[in-house]
Every structure is written in structure tokens, then in C-alpha cells.
Amino acid sequence: MEEEILKLKNQLCFPLYACAKEVVKKYKPFLDAIDLTYTQYITMMVMWEHKEINVKSLGEYLYLDSGTLTPVLKKLASKKL
User: Fold this and answer.
1) For the segment 6-49, what is each residue's pLDDT rounded down to a tens digit?
2) Which pTM was predicted?
3) DSSP 54
4) Which of 6, 38, 45, 64 could connect to 69 by a Cys-Cys bridge, CB 3.0–4.6 Å?
5) What radius of gyration do the chain's Cα atoms show?
6) How many CB atoms lie under 10 A from the CB of residue 38?
7) DSSP-derived secondary structure letter, 35
8) Nearest-CA neighbor of 42 among 68, 17, 10, 80?
9) How many Å is the maximal CA-CA distance in the chain?
């Protein structure tokens, strides 16, 4: 019985993960047209919504740590966004 619980098909996290991947995939053609990744896009969305926001708060909104967020911000800066 315990082994059955541990199977991937019985984990709530996997369908959520798969669904999230599918949603991001739907955005891809539109984001490719404006040369943004999904992470860059949601970062821009938060920055548009909050005209002045610090990196810590931005990371909290996006559930991203500074190790992930810093390269995203550098890439956006290099694109002059």
C-alpha cells in the first residue's frame, strides 16, 4: 500500500508540474515574437505593476531566489528593458 502512494501517478505534484509546463508552452510562440522567456515575461509583469520594486520583493512575488532572478534581470537590462 505505501509503495502505491509513492508512484508518480499518485502524486499531486506531477499533474501540477505537467499543467504548468503546458501553460508555459502556450505562451512560447507569443514570447518568442518579443524575444522573452516566460520567466522574463512574468518578471516584467511584476515590474510594470509595481513601478518601483526592490529585488527581494520581486523575488517574493515570483517565488524566485536571487540566484535565479539575478541572471533574468541582467538579461532584461542587456535588452534595455
Assistant:
1) 899 999 999 999 999 999 999 999 999 999 999 999 999 999 99
2) 0.85
3) -
4) 64
5) 17
6) 15
7) T
8) 68
9) 55
